[in-house]
Design brief:
The complex is a heterodimer of chains A (about 170) and B (about 250). Chain A has about 170 residues and is mainly alpha-helical. Chain A is about 85% helix and about 0% strand. Chain A has one domain (about 1-165): Orthogonal Bundle (MetI-like fold). Chain A has helices spanning about 1-5, 5-20, 25-35, 40-65, 70-75, 80-120, 125-135, 135-165. Chain B has a 9-stranded mixed sheet, sandwiched between helices. Classes of the chains: A mainly alpha (about 170), B alpha/beta (about 250).
Chain lengths: ~170, ~250
């Protein structure tokens, strides 16, 4: 939002986002393992670093996509900046935010699993690591099914929110 | 007393891809009196909508002066809060808001209490024949109904000046004619200053107290006062239509 409102800030942030996205996820995971000792913090760091740029780009595109017609209509009432954001921009980007959530959910679950696999002593990723060490195909399958169920449940939740928030989309 | 004063107004655009300059408004000088209904006619692309955008304060003139109620709309943007309402060519309703919520958006911006917002918006929507559609989303309404909501949105805030940018141009003739009639009744009964922009000459003659004919690029070719008596006489309307058409053709 801030990025959108300030072109100058955008010029600073855009190269940073591009740089973050250019670094492979596995490198970020290794950095997290090397830099942070707390497992939860490693996961949090990776989630932020992997998901935030995608969110930012989606939201920025959605903001840019708000039709000029609607912007002009809103401006004709001479709203304050906050009213303009609250009554026009925020509702206008809800569909894009929800779509971004759907995409990021699966990305986040995959990334967290890899982080747990590489640098954690608990969690599904860690359990998968143990299963692999024990050559237990059944366990790998079982944990994979658990991951799929978690993802599907999360997507059902987002879809439910979407159906409530986007009732106007007939 | 003139409520809108336009003095040697010019608007020149520089095209984004090249440094070519495009004159949208050549030179405009005229006044619009309070409570007057003024029709602005001209060919498509002659700068009528640009003029309205400057009038509402969305665009800055390149040179010259435009004052609304003594205030420059672009420079003193907030001074005219609540004083002007505009109905655009397209309804421009917010798709996520129901008809009632769309109609009251101006009142929300102006900070009216919620009960007052609902009361006023419902009143205007009902007056425009949409009492049964207060909770409908724009996607559930027909083109004519949507334009009525847009009309209610502009009138809700009780503006001193109301602007219409070919507001009924894309509707079918039956709906447009009914809306025009309803709107004129509302403007007369509420004693507002109205500026209609249109390229339909009959519409301009039937609606306006005065017609300002724009050339291309926008400059005043003629200012014609419409005698109310001729509005009932089709032959006189036809004659005036021909006169205006000749002015436009000469340009």
């Amino acid at each position: 939002m801030i990025k959108y409102l300030s072109r100058k800030l955008e010029n600073y942030i855009s190269p940073l986002i591009k740089l973050i996205m250019a670094v492979p996820v596995i490198c970020w995971i290794l950095f997290a393992v090397l830099w942070f000792s707390a497992v939860e913090f490693r996961i949090f760091f990776i989630l932020v670093i992997v998901c935030c740029p995608v969110f930012l780009i989606d939201i920025l595109d959605a903001l840019k996509g708000v039709p000029k017609d609607l912007r002009d209509m809103m401006l004709s009432f001479r709203p304050t900046k906050m009213q303009y954001i609250r009554k026009l921009l925020l509702p206008a980007i809800v569909p894009a935010v929800l779509t971004s959530w759907k995409i990021n959910l699966s990305l986040a679950i995959r990334v967290v699993t890899i982080v747990e696999l590489v640098g954690a002593v608990s969690g599904i990723g860690f359990a998968l690591n143990i299963a692999q060490a024990n050559f237990s195909v059944a366990e790998v399958f079982a944990w994979t099914i658990v991951l799929i169920i978690i993802l599907l449940a999360a997507q059902v939740l987002v879809s439910w929110v979407e159906s409530k928030a986007l009732r106007w989309r007939v | 007393m003139a409520i809108i004063k336009v003095d040697v107004l010019r608007k020149i655009y520089t095209q984004a891809n090249s440094s070519t300059k495009v004159i949208a408004i050549d030179t405009l000088t005229f006044d619009i009196e309070e409570h007057e209904i003024t029709s602005i006619v001209g060919q498509t692309g002659c700068g009528k909508s640009t003029f309205l955008n400057i009038l509402i304060g969305l665009e800055k003139p390149t040179s010259g002066k435009l004052l609304v109620d003594g205030v420059a709309p672009y420079e003193d943007f907030n001074s005219l809060k609540g004083k002007m309402g505009i109905v655009f060519q397209q309804d421009r309703l917010l798709p996520w808001r129901r008809a009632l919520d769309n109609a009251k958006i101006g009142l929300e911006v102006l900070g009216y209490p919620p009960e007052e917002q609902i009361k006023r918006a419902s009143k205007w929507l009902s007056r425009l024949g949409l009492a049964d559609f207060l909770n409908a989303y724009p996607s559930e309404l027909s083109g004519g109904m949507r334009q009525r909501v847009a009309l209610a949105r502009a009138l809700c805030i009780d503006p001193k000046i109301i602007l219409l940018d070919e507001a009924f141009g894309h509707l079918d003739e039956v709906t447009a004619s009914k809306l025009r009639k309803d709107f004129l009744e509302l403007v007369y009964s509420t004693k507002k200053t109205a500026v209609f922009v249109t390229h339909q000459l009959d519409e301009a003659i039937e609606r306006g107290d005065r017609i300002i004919v724009f050339g291309k690029p926008a400059k005043v070719l003629a200012e014609i006062r419409v005698d109310p008596s001729i509005k009932e006489d089709q032959s006189k309307i036809q004659k005036m239509r021909q006169e205006i058409q000749q002015i436009l053709d000469r340009n």
